[in-house]
Amino acid sequence: MSNPVVVATSPSAEDCRLTDAMRRSLRGYLPIDQYGLIGNLHTAALVGMDGSIDFMCWPEFDSPAVFCRILDKDKGGHFVITPENCDLTCKQQYLPFSNVLSTKFLSEEGVGSVTDYMHRPRPGSRSHGYMLPWLMRTVEVIRGELTFDLECFPAFDYARAKHTLEIQDAGHIEKQHPSKHASEAEESIFQSVFTHWDLTEENAESFVGAQRAVFTPEKLEHHDGMGFTSNPADHVAQTAVHPMDLRFVVGCTGSGSCPLVRLEPAPHKSGLGDGVTSRFTLVEGQRVTFIMRTTPESFAEEMAKAGAGEMEIEVYHTKYNPTLSMKFVERVLEDTLLYWLGWIRSCAYSGRWLENVERSALILKLLTYEPTGAVVAAVTFSLPEAIGDSGRNWDYRFTWVRDSAFTMYAFMRLGLNKEAKSYMNFVSKICRSKNPDGGLQIMYTLRGGREMPELVLPHLEGYRGCAPVRIGNGAADHIQLDIYGELLDAVYLYNKYSNPLSYDEWVDVRALVDYVCDNYDQPDMGIWEVRGRRQNFTYSKIQCWVAVDRGLRLVEKRDFPCLTVDRWRRVRDTIYEEVMEKAWNSEHEYFAQSYENKDTLDAAVLAMPLVFFCDGTDPRFIKTMRRIMLPPHRGGLTANNLVFRYNAMETDDGLSGEEGAFSLCTFWLAEALARASKANLTLLYKAQVIMDEMIMYGNHVGLFSEEVDKSGKHLGNFPQ
């Protein structure tokens, strides 16, 4: 790594009174851009600037939500740790080179922080060689004194299942004193980050809280929606509703007494079941780590039902239910920090915007599903693309062939090839179960499943009242021919930058190119997954050209066998000529959205030079790009240097209402301008301005949503 990263923070302090006011002004909801993301490559959670976890599916990305207050302020469930005093300043940042999130609260009386993360083991870990599926929240005071309020109100199974609460009280606290590990910790990364926590102080002590809150949800029988598939692994993950517990460990230094922390039952207005609350005061040198997880008893019970013996269950407990101590918690955090540091060190990028690139890489890594190598499009579902009743609310907790290919392209160009290899294994799996016609679905579950039935949850009001709340995705059976170009472009780059294709992988590629040659002239639903009629979308045709072109390049560079190579060349040239003839609006001089809608602009055609369909200096492309850069009221798609994918008010996409500018399209415009700057250097300056402004639209920790509205607020599923 060439230079240290300066962790991005908000340009100005966020006042907690302002955060409260924002919740009130937005009907009890935080703005989407007020969240950071944590995760463990199996699931993820959104942590608000006010210390509230308002979204988390558990234990997998596509499992039922346990917390989803972001979709219903009253019923959704949340886990908040925040100071009692609201007259303070809030800041949030990632610890350097990591996905460990720190939310800091500053006031005249004291400074405290909440550090949120999910465990990731590092190779050679001193503490634990297996991933602990735990949500961990460490609260501490760095200066002075602060009183914190804790509320933990889970809402299991998308707030459909009631639960019972049992607070188990051991009645005995065993204090723990520093061990040899603590005295050796001076050189640890933990000590370098938490300098205010003196592990070597003689009076340091800690203890495991005597209480344990156990939340036990009822088992509901659903007869439709997610989980009702023919894929057993999908069924297990998508219907997983497990009992969970909340424990805590207390630590303190100095000669004073350790803080008193008590969990108290409290009813929740949703009526789903009691939660727990706590009010505790910490002074400098004191901290509490709260740990939420699936109860080990429920796992052991399931193992026994599956036929596991006592020895297997004992091994499970040894691995995943270790004895708690503050020393162990410190090691888990240290291992997590070192895991992320070790991973991002492989990033080969050293150009401009280094900090932003590395942060984006770390977030993309969080969106990968470790067991299969699939990439989830977003960790959330049903965050609206427009505020109102447009109905543009979708579930993105699946792997789109297109989005995953873009992600693999980014990883490979950054030198992060291990992820590319894992994804290629996933691609090989889905290629072995193609559609009856030889094609692929546009999306799959994270385990390669093909079924994701769409279901509306009418009991949830939606973010800021924007119903409906959907789980599953009805677009899974759409025909979108562009996916073949995006996928085969990524495969071509994998062969070039990562690992040479094997013969078996080539056979899969060859079959896909043959499929494109047979079907390129068919109408489809396009990259934007319109729910209107099928059309011959220009972008789809361009990507069909890319698919055949990359197949031909592999034949030429690797001498792979291909008896239909002459046909491939004819089809590639036919597609090119067809696009130039049928997609070109000769009257207004731009490439149109589709052959049928020549009067409609589509920002997707900005990808033309990015995939080498044409050069960035091609006169036709330059005219199209300049048209897109006009404001909507003058026939363009750009407002305030933000690009809309198309004019939603004038385009029949099967939906109603407006939507925000599309983040991906704005980045495409910046790159297209840079490629076009060979003919006009001023375009390069314009590209840099757009890039800088788009980075500005990222939130305080550098995360981007799917869309940005006219006022600069984030819309759509988050982060992407």
From TrEMBL:
<dbReference type="Pfam" id="PF00723">
    <property type="entry name" value="Glyco_hydro_15"/>
</dbReference>
<dbReference type="InterPro" id="IPR045582">
    <property type="entry name" value="Trehalase-like_N"/>
</dbReference>
<protein>
    <recommendedName>
        <fullName>Glycosyl hydrolase</fullName>
    </recommendedName>
</protein>
<dbReference type="InterPro" id="IPR008928">
    <property type="entry name" value="6-hairpin_glycosidase_sf"/>
</dbReference>
<dbReference type="GO" id="GO:0005975">
    <property type="term" value="P:carbohydrate metabolic process"/>
</dbReference>
<dbReference type="GO" id="GO:0004553">
    <property type="term" value="F:hydrolase activity, hydrolyzing O-glycosyl compounds"/>
</dbReference>
<feature type="domain" description="Trehalase-like N-terminal">
    <location>
        <begin position="30"/>
        <end position="171"/>
    </location>
</feature>
<dbReference type="Pfam" id="PF19291">
    <property type="entry name" value="TREH_N"/>
</dbReference>
<dbReference type="InterPro" id="IPR012341">
    <property type="entry name" value="6hp_glycosidase-like_sf"/>
</dbReference>
<feature type="domain" description="GH15-like">
    <location>
        <begin position="354"/>
        <end position="720"/>
    </location>
</feature>
<dbReference type="InterPro" id="IPR011613">
    <property type="entry name" value="GH15-like"/>
</dbReference>
